[in-house]
Structure prediction request, 270 residues.
Amino acid sequence: MISMLRILILTFCITIALTTIFQTTSASTIYVPNDYKKIQWAIKNASAGDTIVVRDGVYYESIFINKRLTIKSENGYTKTTINGVKSNTVLIVADSVRIEGFTITGAGCGIKIESSNNIILNNKVSSNDWCGIQVFRSSNNTIAYNNISLNGMHGIWLLESTNNKISNNNISNNGDGILLEGSSNNIIYLNNFIDNYDNVRSSLSTNLWNSPKKITYTYNDKSYTNYLGNYWDDYKGLDHNLDGIGDKIYRTNSEADRYPLIRPWENYFR
Prediction:
């Protein structure tokens, strides 16, 4: 009886191990336009967990992502553009999608997220009629290291969304830099807000506008450790101790950046 139990346990463990190995090794890399001419065709034929690599060029299409995928350009956003032809250039409805290295332009909204645990990284989201990036009733998304500019109404728009992380972005020349409506418990720090009509507008929202932990940084060739907020081009406070953090809280609506940066965030990490 004991031997049979051991055999059953061993068989179960082997099955789990083989399943894990198969799932790990079965993911494929698809190239556009080599394998499929359009990004949407590649998405349609991909399996969850696959990576789609998009080679240099301008792709005139709107893409709908309904499965877990990594979609990235081969050589970064200066080489690869998705120019939308509908209301959204990129619409994400699946969880755990990664979008990296594109110029995203030419539609009502550059990227619309209606799911969770996605990563939007190293993109230029620019010249969309309505907004750059919209997060709608979604959580645990990361929006980082993007240039978000020249969007008609909003650079980033969070609507009824929580627990998202927005950091290390350059947000400039939009209507609103960021609009938050019914969206709380998001973490927003180390962003540059420059030349927006309104840098931030917020209603029914309370968020954290600085790093959740202290960060070691360099400012004017000296090292400091502190919480870091965002850079606001309309901040009027002073920095008496010359540590790169304003002495006065930056306030707008119900929101407050308690550690506003004196210079754009990239000056603190050289």
Remarks:
- The mean pLDDT is 93.
- Residues 244 and 262 are 5 Å apart (CA to CA).
- The longest strand covers residues 131-136.
